[in-house]
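so the lab meeting is tmrw and i was supposed to have these ready like two days ago... anyway. pasting both below. for each one the top line is the aa sequence and the line under it is the structure tokens. i havent really looked at them closely yet so no promises
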Amino acid sequence: KRGCDLIVVPYNTSSETIMSFHPDGVMLSNGPGNPEDLPEVLDTIRELIPQTVVFGICLGHQLISLACGAKTYKLKFGHRGGNHPVINLTNGTIEITSQNHGYAVDGTTIDPAIAKEAFINVNDGTNEGLAYEGKNIFTVQFHPEACPGPQDSGYLFDKFIEMMGGQK
């Protein structure tokens, strides 16, 4: 819809292989399970961060957070379905989001020199996204591709494209 060419690779693809495609950016997408079960991915993420723009969604958000030193934990009750209100701490607006996850990033373990909380879940105060300091990274826990409200978070894809240099 936004005119991007996509190359999809498995989670265990090396940073060298990913960068051999000369991407304008890398998106780490959603997926199932405990992010701590994928420690082999963290070094790849650390290698990608200085080389390109990185956008993390859901599991991608959690993995980038782990790679940057934060911790994750299992939620007592996972966030499932649509209509989850999230506050955007940048502008104070509430976005209605779609969510499907059982783990969350522990906001108290985020080094403020690395990232700051950018989104918070209105219902339970859990972290819903980070803005990274001095890096071309941003992450969200929710699913902006699901367009639940009706398109509250679609602007995040435009932000990603802008960070990659805009439409070419």
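ok protien two:
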Amino acid sequence: PAPLSSPLWEIDLNSNQLTGPIPKSFFELMNLQHLRLGSNKLTDTIELGSIWRLRNLTYLNLGNNMISVTENEGDTIFSHSLRIQNLYLASCNLTKFPASLKYIDTIQNINFSNNQIEGVIPSWIWENRLETLDLSFNELQGSIPGPSTPSDLVLLDCSNNNFSSIEPNFGTYLRNVRYINLSKNKLSGNIPLSFCSLNYPEFMDLSYNYFSGPI
């Protein structure tokens, strides 16, 4: 079907009791900027390629439903000219970081909590000007990396994963972060001295790990 020329730019149906699949017509609204369907009982499988066709979309929340978000190999071709800034896909059965995010330089807030994402955090995640990054309750492992250049991040939640270490310079370029939750991992060794570089820390949870040595 041809894309719809409706002037509709926002759909907010968060926190209801909606069931069934998401109407396919939502992904034909070319002027849509905000799509908020979080915290319902929706059941569907959504391909990111169908979402990325919405060139004007800046805010997407599909989290906390019974949805599975998938990515086909060709979905990245749609992502080069996107404006997406806020991407909330909590509990969407993700098993990996969507590769298309590598090509989106406008994204600021990511919530991929409560999924089944395995492996390590890709280094390109820091190439975006992120403000919040929630990766809690996944199956991530290895080292928690930090950015190699100054970051705008204010919230980082990597709790409830299988991380085993933190890079020593972790806090060097995260000086504006206010909230850090690294609890319930398998982190060991010393707490990185670079944490002392933080300018505005308000909340830091390192509980339920295996840290040793001096504070």
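from a quick look at the 2nd one: The chain has a mean pLDDT of 91. The CA atoms of residues 41 and 141 lie 30 Å apart. will dig more after coffe
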